[in-house]
Amino acid sequence: MSGVAIVGAAECDLGVTGRSVLGLQTQAITRALDDAGLTLADVDGLAATGVSRFSVTQLADYLGVQPRWGDSTFAGGSAFEMFVARAAQAIEAGQAEVVVISFASNQRSARSRSLAGASDQHTLEAQFESPYDPLYPLSYYAMAARAYLHRAGRDRAALAEIAVAARAWALLNPAAYRHEAGPLTIADVLDAPMISSPLTAADCCLVTDGGGAVVVTSAERARDLPRPPVHVLGYGERTTNTSMTTRPVITETGASGAAADALAAADLAIADIDVLELYDSFTITVALTLEELGLCGRGEALDLVADGAIRPGGALPLNTSGGGLSYCHPGQMGILLLVEAVRQLRGEAGARQVPGARTALVHGTGGILSTHATVVLGADR
Fold it and tell me: Thiolase C-terminal domain spans which residues (predicted)?
């Protein structure tokens, strides 16, 4: 268990905002600091990244702060869980006292779906994958989904339950992009436009503006702040690949090692976790991650989620905000997984609150199942 805690958490405006990336970042950070009872003058550590790389120096300059510690690790959707680990280490080493972790994107307002930059002709992808013109990252996840369904002997309808459950949670979250859209059915998912077989539009995350921030400090300092601290109990990570070409089995990821390390540090088992916030870039991402966490065996995730197990009121509360599938996905949403976990452990999630939630596991996935980072959090109420 580390000696640090998350003491503030907030979203910026979500959906279609018309705001700049830095404007959204500022919203998220100032709201999170206000939530923590702190100000920019208290911040001496800053961690941030972006959809297409984003230097923390840009953000610090815009905010008018000069942090003595910073991190701009670019690892996709898992970066923010990695930042929690780095922040904890920096605080415990005396390199910083108050660290803000943030992200924002205006990708929907900017009308951009591209998460890839210009091609480097010397990369593995350029040599062996780019000639087939895959949609990045969609086609890669679709390939993993096709392989998974084949090996598990399951069909698209079983996978669709993950999207249906996410919508059910979003209907309880007024901030969710799909809050007013009404329930989603298995038939709706199957009948949605096919984007990259076997994934339809409803199997894919949203494209929205948005972002968020969390404030991390020592457990000792947290005791003097107004909000209940959420303790960082453990963390772990794995980096496995940049290209699908190098993966011996594309349906097995580094999430298992990351989660095992985090749970061991927290001295908890997966059965001790009350709330799961898992990156859901696509429905298949959730299925693979559930198996890697050890909640079921290989090929059994779709049996695990059947019969409403991950819907509100089910035995396995998962992605309680509505996730990237129905709440918000601004290109990278690992920060928003942390924000939701904090709210659940504080008992502040309103209609979607998981009764008695005291532990949460947050898992970020980046790239094409490339980077994996897990954080285990515990309530102090």
Answer: 236-378
Q: Find the distance separating the first CA and the last CA of the chain, reported in whole Å.
A: 17
- Shared domain for 223 and 299, answered yes or no, is no
- Residue 354 token pair: 């998981």
Whether residues 265 and 314 fall in one domain: yes
Q: What is the residue range of 97's domain?
A: 4-108+209-230
* Active centre residues (catalytic): 279, 327
Q: What is the pTM of this model?
A: 0.95
What pLDDT is recorded for position 118? 42
Looking at mean pLDDT, say which of 18-27, 49-58, 295-304 comes out highest: 295-304
Which domain CATH number covers 173? 3.40.47.10
155 shares a domain with 298: yes
Is the pLDDT assigned to residue 228 strictly greater than 70?
yes
What pLDDT shows up at residue 243? 87
Both 103 and 151 in one domain: the answer is no
